[in-house]
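Page 42, continued from yesterday. The earlier attempt failed because a stray header line got pasted into the input along with the sequence. Redoing it now with the clean sequence only.
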Amino acid sequence: MAQIARTPKQLGDALRRHRTHIGLSQSQVAAKAGLRQATISQIENGHDATKVETICALLAALDLELTVAPRSKGSSQDIEDIF
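This time it went through. Structure tokens are written below.
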């Protein structure tokens, strides 16, 4: 299921939901991505200074991909309400 994320917090929430849905712990994902568990925690909590390279490693570990598309007309709050 595709999810819209416009902020670091929304992206972190989406990644956490997917990780828990597939039954992996932060430590397991960190090992697959070659990252520290604390880094996974920071991303899931919306840390806004995460490198794109780190996000890409996490996406690969979760078997996800990033799609760039034009913004829909909904507000950021509308997106928050979905989650």
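Notes: DSSP finds five helices and no strands in the chain.
Reminder to self: strip header lines before submitting.
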